[in-house]
Design a protein that fits this description.
heterodimer, A: alpha+beta, Nuclear Transport Factor 2, Chain: A, eight-stranded antiparallel β-sheet, B: 0% strand, PepSY-ass_TM (chain A), transmembrane (chain A)
Chain lengths: 505, 99
């Protein structure tokens, strides 16, 4: 690549990163936490904490228990027990009302209903930015496209990518230190970033792409294409009919496909002659999306089957998009790796923005007011999100209802306003880091005080609760070490500037 | 943007619009063409179009940004877009006739 094109790639990388760096930080950070949508369930719901029992149980008996407990709507969604959520969850949506029941799969004991999940809240931030569909979803998809652009341009401009895989040169300035970290994180995380950006772009823009891709065969009718793929919807006949046993149908699924890990069961128009019962789940130890068996509820006939392992190469590749994005195909170790890589991608977004700001904030002739304003905005949004997330966990352990979510938004808004009107970003870094360290340490402590599940107890009995508390403890420890040792180099005194109100006006 | 960089990349809006807007149209045209012509089952063709979409768009952006002028960028992206659109439209027409 010639010098001119390299310079253009550098400019593209800088401007795209500047415009989208803060948004990408929010998306990557929230995604890193929201990935544990199932695993966080035990921590957020102390009443549902129990050991996982993998012994077989009667799904039919538990469903009848739920019906006896008042879950009588014809359309029911059942989440099967898992090590992270060792109970049956049954949910219905009827006339805009949502009803949830949790049952012990072996004893049939009704468990307390929990309030909304932290991971779902952060998941909505990750997938929709808490904006109405499709505005938020398409924004996320476009961010994925531009993350891909950043990746390609970053790869092209970084000539010494293989020789600079390790931080070897002495760091003299903060900008040099940030640049080294940015290069190392970018190079090591390249395959992960490629996968996340590519799959995120497709998942985010799927609603937009669907009508175009369905033009040829389905005249642009996405619903028709979806029905052809996932099976026809249940048609109510208004003729009551006895239903097949869920246990019998489950056995048929597992005899047809022993590798299927049944995660969800959907009952549609249950009790009617047109009822459907769908079993859904991936094949164990394969990189595939949810396969499905759809049966007639009345006579047990197999109405439709979805098998992502069959079909053409593009069909099978598309089936890998969702598990690749969520890291749901390789067990807990892969999820931890995704978590660490997700945080490193978050740090990549932050360091990219900081490099740009370092360069402009410490110029000899001083920074432009717009640069100062952007530095404050970036500090507020990026510094405020981890603080607000820690407050969300902390308040969730103490308060019920929507109070934790109100605390989340108020904390984030508070940090944004503080960064905008208060101390400079340089002055705010230390107190904000100290506040984050303190909050992170308080979370396992408060959880222990509120539920009795301190680290030394959950270590033996509740691995998912222990993992959450231990992560927060380690985050607090890391931030404390960072604070104590001041790991980042200072800006050189000759170049150091403190933002003054007159420059910012 | 530095003055040196400005000298290399004057008036970037033509190239930016060609890369972003033109690239989007090109990626859609390529995707629809694939969903019409790729010799496989309907879902395979649909998924192919969706999977190619991000790569085509990003490639178009990188190509358009390195053009010397906005006009050249629109030419680089616009011509293949028109070709693929014509291909997809013809294919869709023939497909409908056949059905």
């Amino acid at each position: 690549m010639n010098q001119r094109n390299r310079k253009i790639m550098l400019e593209t990388h800088a401007w795209a990163g500047l415009i989208l760096g803060v948004l990408l930080f929010v998306i990557c950070f929230s995604g890193s936490v929201a990935m544990f949508v199932g695993e966080l369930g035990a921590w957020t719901n102390p009443h549902l904490r129990r050991a996982y029992n993998p012994a077989p149980f009667s799904l039919e008996a538990r469903y009848q228990d739920a019906r006896a407990a008042g879950l009588t709507q014809p359309n029911v969604f059942i989440a099967m027990p898992s090590p992270a959520q060792p109970y049956l969850s049954l949910a219905t949506f009827h006339n805009g009302e949502h009803q949830d029941i949790h049952i012990d799969p072996h004893t049939g004991e009704l468990l307390p209903t929990h309030h909304a999940e932290i991971s779902e809240f952060l998941g909505h931030l990750h997938t929709d930015l808490h904006l109405p569909y499709p505005l938020g979803r398409y924004s996320i998809g476009l961010s994925g496209i531009f993350l891909l652009l950043l990746l390609v341009t970053g790869f092209l401009i970084h000539r010494k990518r293989w020789s600079e895989l390790w931080l070897t040169r002495p760091t003299k300035t903060r900008r040099m230190w940030l640049t080294d970290i940015h290069k190392v994180l970018g190079t090591w995380g390249l395959p992960f970033t490629l996968v996340i950006a590519f799959t995120g772009a497709i998942l985010g823009l799927l609603g937009f792409l669907g009508p175009f891709m369905a033009l040829a065969t389905y005249n642009g009718d996405v619903d028709a294409a979806t029905q052809a793929f996932s099976g026809p919807p249940a048609q109510r006949t208004e003729q009551p009919a006895p239903m097949m046993s869920l246990d019998t149908l489950r056995e048929r699924v597992l005899s047809d496909d022993p590798s299927m890990d049944i995660q969800y069961v959907s009952l549609r128009e249950y009790g009617d002659g047109g009822a459907q019962i769908e079993f859904n789940g991936p094949a164990r130890e394969t990189l595939t999306y949810q396969n499905a068996f759809v049966f007639s509820g009345a006579d047990g006939a197999l109405l439709h089957r979805v098998n992502w392992n069959q079909g053409g190469v593009w069909h099978q590749l598309f089936g890998m998009v969702t598990p690749l994005h969520f890291g749901s195909f390789g067990g807990p170790l892969l999820k931890w790796l995704y978590f660490l890589l997700g945080l490193s991608l978050t740090a990549l977004c932050a360091t990219g923005t900081m490099i740009w700001l370092e360069k402009r904030l410490h110029q000899k002739h001083g920074a432009a007011p717009s640069t100062n304003r952007y530095a404050r905005f970036a500090m507020g949004v990026c510094g405020g999100l981890p603080t607000a997330t820690a407050v969300l966990f902390l308040t969730h352990a103490l308060l019920a209802g929507d109070a934790p979510y109100v605390a989340f938004w108020l904390t984030w808004l508070g940090v944004v306003l503080l960064a905008w009107f208060g101390p400079t970003p340089a002055q705010l870094t230390l107190p904000l880091t100290a506040a984050n360290a303190a909050t992170a340490w308080l979370i396992p402590l408060v959880n222990g005080l509120a539920t009795g599940d301190f680290l030394w107890r959950s270590y033996r009995e509740l691995p998912y609760v222990f993992a959450v508390d231990a992560v927060f403890f380690l985050i607090g420890l890391t931030l404390w070490v960072v604070l104590q040792r001041r790991l980042w180099p200072s800006t050189r005194p000759a170049q150091a500037r403190v933002l003054t109100p007159s420059r910012e006006s | 943007m530095s003055s040196q960089a400005k000298a290399v990349t004057p008036k970037p809006w033509g190239r930016i619009s060609a890369g972003t807007l033109g690239g989007l149209l090109l990626a859609l045209a390529v995707g629809v063409s694939c969903s019409v012509f790729w010799p496989s089952d309907p879902f395979d063709r649909m998924f192919m179009g969706a999977l190619l979409f991000p790569g085509v768009w990003v490639t178009a952006m990188c190509t358009a940004f390195t053009a010397h002028t906005g006009k050249q960028a629109w030419l680089w992206v616009g011509v293949p877009t028109l070709l693929f659109t014509a291909l997809a439209t013809t294919g869709l027409f023939l497909f409908k006739q056949a059905v």
